[in-house]
Design a protein that fits this description.
Layout (H helix, E strand, L loop, with lengths): L1 H47 L4 H6 L5 H10 L6 H13 L13 H36 L4 H15 L2 H15 L24 H7 L3 H38 L2 H8 L4 H31 L1 H6 L5 H10 L3 H29 L5
Family: Belongs to the binding-protein-dependent transport system permease family.
Subcellular location: Cell membrane
Membrane topology: Multi-pass membrane protein
């Protein structure tokens, strides 16, 4: 009997390991296919856009022999498939070429500017979470009321209004007219170089080094563009929170809790929201990914020295190495955040396993 149970236990562990191996294999295959598609898309973009990368390097007045030599050095004389394979090999090793605009390796430039984008997007998504979730819960609880209609209109406006126009109006009102926040940029010139870059995020680095004046100035600069991104995130999070909460409030366990005499606040915040939080993890992760990739216009309006502004300036100067490198980094981050949210969802909800 004991031997039979031991055999069954061994078979159970083997089946569990086999399922885990299959899941890991599917995950690796999914990542591989997605990244391969992303590499193919960025490579095609670099070949389709009407910009000659050779002219961007040598200029319009270069003699023909110089033009041809640089073309060969860039590998543009090779067959199309061979160019793609070389591009994939270099991209996977982190080599995106040299920026024409800065003469630095593209990866060096991205490592310098990307923390600013992460900082801006993180503050923006925190604003969206801290405001969007309570508003979504309130709209679900007060379904059909004036509060519900207000939250829905607020979300609709957040989806409809172009973010660059919203940013310009915010600068006009809160900076130019009311003088409540600092203007474009990341820091006033007075505070430049007072903080040694560690993480690349000024708010974090200034706290770590006890530079509270720098922190206050940086916060005054970031709060308006982050609020614009946060409003866009709020629109998505509040709508999805409302939908998830309506579904949970219609469940039988909510009726049972009310029959038992539990307070409405406890039912909503301790039980219904706790169950709705599982799919909300995916919503928040996707919202964060959208802010990382969609901050280009916001960074341009607010002169924020992040990856979005770097890509914009590179595109204006026909620096395709920088454009493709930045696009690939943003796409990769988006893919992994998407996959990470799916993994977290599976861990939190046993029904999806």
């Amino acid at each position: 009997m004991a031997t039979s149970q031991a055999v069954q236990g061994g078979d159970g562990r083997f089946d569990a390991l086999l399922r885990l191996a299959r899941a890991a294999g599917r995950f690796v295959a999914m990542v591989t296919v997605t990244l391969a598609g992303l590499l193919a898309v960025t490579f095609l973009i670099g070949r389709v856009v009407p910009i000659d990368p050779v002219l961007a390097v040598v200029g319009d007045r270069a003699p023909p022999h110089v033009y041809e030599r640089v073309r060969q050095e860039l590998g543009l004389d090779l067959p199309f498939l061979q160019q793609f394979l070389i591009y994939c090999r270099k991209a996977l090793s982190g080599d995106f070429g040299t920026s024409v605009l800065t003469t630095n390796p593209v990866m060096t430039d991205i490592a310098r500017v990307f923390p600013a984008t992460v900082e801006l997007s993180t503050v923006g998504v925190l604003i969206g979470i801290l405001t969007g979730i309570p508003l979504g819960v309130l709209a679900a609880v007060k379904r059909g009321s004036v509060v519900d209609q207000f939250v829905r209109v607020l979300g609709l406006v957040g989806y409809s209004v172009p973010i660059f126009w919203l940013g310009l109006m915010g600068l006009l009102l809160f900076y130019a007219r009311l003088d409540l926040v600092s203007g474009p940029g990341r820091l006033d010139i007075t505070y430049d170089y007072l903080v040694t870059p560690v993480t690349g995020m000024i708010l974090v680095d200034s706290i770590m080094q006890g530079q509270w004046e720098v922190f206050r100035n940086a916060f005054s600069h970031i709060i308006l563009p982050a609020a614009m991104l946060g409003y866009f995130s709020l629109a998505y999070i509040s709508r999805m929170t409302r939908s998830f909460m309506l579904s949970e409030l219609a469940q039988e366990y909510v009726t049972t809790a009310r029959v038992k005499g539990l307070s409405e606040a406890r039912i909503i915040w301790r039980h219904a929201l706790r169950n709705a939080a599982v799919p909300l993890v995916t919503v928040v992760a996707l919202s964060y990914a959208h802010l990382l990739e969609g901050s280009v216009l916001t960074e341009t309006v607010f002169a924020w020295p992040g990856l979005g502004q770097y890509i914009t300036h590179s595109l204006q100067n026909a620096d395709m190495n920088a454009v493709l490198g930045g696009t690939l980094i943003i796409g990769t981050v988006f893919v992994f955040l998407n996959l990470f949210s799916d993994l977290i969802y599976r861990l939190l909800d046993p029904r999806t396993r």
